Sequence to fold (347 residues):
Amino acid sequence: MNSLDYVPKNPRAFQGYVEGVRKLNDYLESNVGVQLAEADRYLSQAIDSDPDFLPAQYYKSIVLTHERKSDDAIQLLEELLNKKPTFQTEVLYNLAFAYAKKYQYEPLTKAIELAAKALDEAKADERTELILLLSAIRAWMFAVFAGRPYGHPENFDQRKREYLPRAVEIADSVLKDRRLPELPADTRAAITVEAHNAAGIAFMRIGQFSSVFRNEKNSAWQLALQHYLAALSVHPHDVRVLDNISSLRLLQASKAAREGHTENIQKFASQARDRALEAISFNPGDQFRHYRRAQAEYLLGNLNGVHEAAQKALDQPGEVGEQKIRSLLNAQSTKDLAVVLDQNLTD
Fold:
């Protein structure tokens, strides 16, 4: 996007925009939540000073999505689309991402549709960086869409069979694309992390649903971890990847609990907790990672840790849901493992 196509009427608007984008880029590099909050403040200053300055609105929407305020981001992005900006493809991409971050069935289907439209536009304009980024984000969306029932158990198996292999295939094609090494370093890094993260989620779910993918069940979780670690080798502080490693370890701990492997429960639950705490140390503003920590603490028998993490989860934005969090917050002991195992089902 070329912000020079849009000139703000107020110098304070431009100052807020420049500082806001700088802080957002700092956050995307470090994942330190304080920088995200500062980006929000500066970009809000820019918009307040010049409500017609579209680039400030665009970057504010990205901040809102990372703050887990998807509805606010969607509203801002849809208003931007109606204004027909020159950077429409970027708006479509971020609108798709904001819908997907709601982690609900209908928004995810909308996200997949929008990402496909944005990809078509990127191809028409021969924009390699957007083509590869949108391909990677579509792989992520497919893996997420096939990862949970989302209130639609009637087509859950079909989604697993269709979208998980597609996610792996697309992510692999992005990572092997000959154009990728030719892109600027920061763009190449973002695409590489997104593709590895998408493949990691897909393999994590393939291992989780072994009755559907019998041939891959023994190696899938190992491949998932390899992709997650490859993503962290590029971006060591990526909280989304850290969250996913925590999820993987919780699945492994839950499987060990069902099979009565006490040592593996402790091993994997400890790793799930540590990765959740690592993500929290960078950006605590997401209830998901506090919820993951609470679940891990539960499997470790640490009731005080369960209550502390669950209370913090309630205080943060996200899509986990109050009922799930309160089931841990109100726990009087850690003996009934079903409260965690039922949320981490494996075949």
The chain has three domains: 1-86, 88-237, 240-347.
